[in-house]
Amino acid sequence: MSVSYNGFVFINCPFDEEFKDMLYAIVFTVYRCGFKPRSALEEDNALNNRLAKIEKLIEESRFGIHDISRTETNNIALPRFNMPFELGIFFGAKKFGDQEQKNKVALVLEREKYLYQQYISDLNGIDTKAHGGNPEKAIKIVRDWLRVSSGEKGIDGHIKIVKDYREFRQKMPGITTDSGLDINELTFTDYCLMVEEALSINML
Questions:
Q1: Is the full-model pTM beyond 0.85?
Q2: Which residues, other chains included, contact 132 with Cβ-Cβ below 8 Å and sequence gap of 6+?
Q3: What is the pLDDT of residues 143-157, one digit of tens each?
Q4: Cα(126)–Cα(67) distance, integer angstroms
Q5: What's the total number of domains in the chain?
Q6: For a 10 Å CB count at each end of the chain, is N or C smaller?
Q7: CATH code, domain carrying 123
């Protein structure tokens, strides 16, 4: 899938088991709308510095989806700051970068509308979108945002994309088995390749 800066969508979200359904829905929607998702998970090279890798992905991507809904403290009472931090890098690239970087567009997701004002008030005035923890609602939000932000007229409506996503998820167990994979241990790259293949052969 050959894509350039205007077709890349950087995804900044939790990567744990609890968020997996949301991540899968977002990635599928990005592909289904004709774009390519980028993530720090797409590369596994111990020699590459993680922050440098994230900076490179942000530089290469015009669009960015940032889910900052996961701010709960862990078992030693510490919050997770990775997502707000990466959002800050994205803002910085837009503000201080060259003309191409100034064309960046971001979607900021959270679980509950404007909850971010309680823990990152510097974002006041940003129009976040709340998905309520519902992957299908996230599909509509991401689809509508990409349609408006990109100006692409050929993007299908969210009802059709949700239908396709449901069908894809129903077929995932068979696809993973045929590929010799464990559906519970898919890498980000494995999942992306499955989606690309399903869409390229009109499996849905």
A1: yes
A2: 111, 112
A3: 999 999 999 999 999
A4: 13
A5: 1
A6: N
A7: 3.40.50.10140
